Structures are given as structure tokens and as C-alpha cells.
Amino acid sequence: MENMNKLNELLLICSKNKIEFIYQTEGKENTVTFHPTIPRLEVNIGDYEDEFLDKLLSDRIKELKNLFK
Predict the structure, then answer these.
(1) Residue numbers of the chain with a pLDDT score lower than 50
(2) CB of 42 within 8 A of CB of 35?
(3) Is 64:12 a contact under the CB 8 Å cutoff?
(4) For the chain, what is the radius of gyration of the CA atoms?
(5) Cβ distance 43 to 35 under 8 Å?
(6) Cα angle 5-45-63, degrees, rounded to a multiple of 5
(7) Which of 8, 39, 49, 57 pairs as cysteine with 19 (C-beta 3.0–4.6 A)?
(8) Residue 61 is part of which domain span?
(9) Are 10 and 60 in contact (CB under 8 A)?
(10) Number of domains, the chain
């Protein structure tokens, strides 16, 4: 459930800053990629059991918060 809260936080950051938010569940790889020139955030969650998913989401939240202070 913690990861769902982090996804919600990313969605809120994106909506507040007019960033397109794309969520996918393809493959087995987890990625969170920000494209500042578009602006777009692409989130792909292929493995909910990945032990590094929480850190991946937290790092991207921190990065975006710092970018849009």
C-alpha cells in the first residue's frame, strides 16, 4: 500500500506542475522516467514485489519536489 501512496503523490506533483503522467504495467522492469522537455513522467511497474521499487519511487518524488520548489 505504501507504493500506491507514492504513486498518488507522483500523480499529484504531475498534475500540479502540468506534467503528463503515464502509468504502465508492461514487462518485468520497474522504471520511473521524467522527460523535462516534453514534460512527461512515465511510470512502468512490471514487478510489484521488487524490493527496490519503494526507493525508485521515493527518489523520483524527491527529485521532482526539488525541481518544482
Answers:
(1) none
(2) yes
(3) no
(4) 11
(5) no
(6) 60
(7) 39
(8) 2-67
(9) yes
(10) 1
SS3 annotation, the chain: CHHHHHHHHHHHHHHHCCCEEEEECCCCCCEEEEECCCCEEEEECCCCCCCCHHHHHHHHHHHHHHHCC
Residue environment code for 18-39, b if the CB has 16+ CB neighbours within 10 A, otherwise e: ebeeeeeeeeeebebebeeeee
- What CA–CA distance (Å, rounded) separates 51 from 67? 26
| Count of C-beta atoms within a 10 Å radius of residue 41 | 22
Query: What dihedral angle (degrees, nearest 10) is formed by the CA atoms of 54, 61, 40, 27?
Result: 0
Q: How many CB atoms within 10 Å of residue 43?
A: 22
Cα(65)–Cα(13) distance, integer angstroms: 8
